[in-house]
Write a structure and sequence with these properties.
Elements (H helix, E strand, L loop, with lengths): L8 E5 L4 H12 L3 E6 L10 E2 L17 E4 L11 H23 L7 E7 L10 E2 L9 H18 L3 E7 L1 E3 L4 H11 L12 E2 L1 E3 H13 L5 E5 L5 E2 H12 L9 H8 L1 H7 L4 E2 L2 H5 L9 H9 L2
Parallel strand pairs: 1-2, 1-4, 2-3, 4-5, 5-7, 6-13, 7-11, 8-10
Antiparallel strand pairs: 9-12
Length: 305
């Protein structure tokens, strides 16, 4: 795959998260200058750019000289949703993206490309329907957030900057996220399907997610929504069986829907017990080659020496 040109200056928001921290390390290892946009002075390093979406703090001058921007910031979804946390989920995405878009529009010399975060929650829970970037938005809280999140980035495209909306699926890494939470019980032989097990999980390995973002940076014809998922979505039951096989542990203990709803409330119904069967149509059409296209291969690469 074509690598981004050397000496590229790239600004990254969400740089301390699971994906963002891995991305920053990868870009720097590739010889790029990375400017992390950080909210906390305690997290700041030399060259970082302070920003505060709630206070509207980010001027065009802060991004001067950036060839590209990768915007990944947003409050975590995978915890019990209170009314205030649902507000944080939405506002952290919409306010942050609106602020970034305003700054980009105001830049005298604009970046070549902006990759702006989104998620496959945009499609809502659609059962067995196979979805791609041409599919309409769904319904529900996460679908509404996704639509507002993407709309907030639209002024960037209107200003003539190539805008790619990263509709990210379930990113797999043993270091965090969904897989990180699943590993302890599965390693003890206590894993199994969640709820009915029929809900779809559209996943992507962290390695392929990073590679797909690099691909988007340099693929001039790529713009608009791009599904960052593997070409092989799995039902939750099949996912559990595959993970158990890779770990050489039984994966037969189901976790009933009622238990998940008691533990996580609305979040469980909207995420763990729901799903989307999503295809990476744009990535495939652009010539991107997955390094880890199958779940078993991806898990073995991550979890076995």
């Amino acid at each position: 795959m074509t690598a981004a040109p050397s000496s590229t200056t790239i600004a990254v928001t969400g740089a301390t998260g699971l994906i963002g921290s891995a991305l920053v390390a990868r870009l720097r290892a590739g010889g790029h200058v990375v400017r992390r946009l950080v909210r906390s002075a305690r997290e700041a390093q030399a060259g970082d750019v302070p920003w505060n979406p709630e206070a509207g703090m980010l001027g065009p001058a802060a991004l001067a000289g950036c060839d590209a921007i990768i915007h990944l910031a947003g409050a975590p979804v995978a915890q019990r949703w209170t009314a205030s946390h649902k507000r944080d989920i939405r506002e952290s995405r919409v306010q942050g993206t609106s602020l970034l878009a305003k700054a980009v529009v105001g830049m005298a010399v604009k970046p070549r490309v902006v990759l702006s975060g989104s998620a496959i929650g945009y499609y809502g829970d659609r059962g067995d329907e196979l979805l791609d970037e041409r599919s309409a938005a769904g319904t529900g809280f996460l679908a509404d957030v996704g639509a507002a999140w993407e709309a907030a980035a639209e002024p960037i495209a209107q200003a003539g900057v190539r805008l790619v909306l990263l509709r990210t699926g379930i990113v797999l890494s043993p270091d965090g996220g969904a897989l990180g939470k699943m590993l302890p019980p599965f390693r003890l032989g206590l894993g199994g399907p969640m709820g009915s097990g029929r809900q779809w999980m559209s996943w992507i390995s962290l390695e392929d997610h990073l590679r797909a973002m690099e691909h988007a940076l340099v693929t001039e014809g790529m713009r608009g929504a791009v599904n960052l998922v593997s070409p092989n979505p799995m039902t939750n039951a099949s996912f559990a069986t595959t993970l158990g096989r890779v770990l050489r542990r039984p994966a037969l203990l189901p976790l009933p829907a009622v238990a998940l709803e008691l533990m996580f409330g609305e979040m469980a119904e909207a995420t763990i017990l729901s799903g989307q069967r999503v295809a990476p149509h744009v990535l495939a059409s652009s010539g991107f080659q997955f390094a880890e296209p199958t779940l078993e291969g991806a898990l073995r690469s991550m979890l076995q020496d």
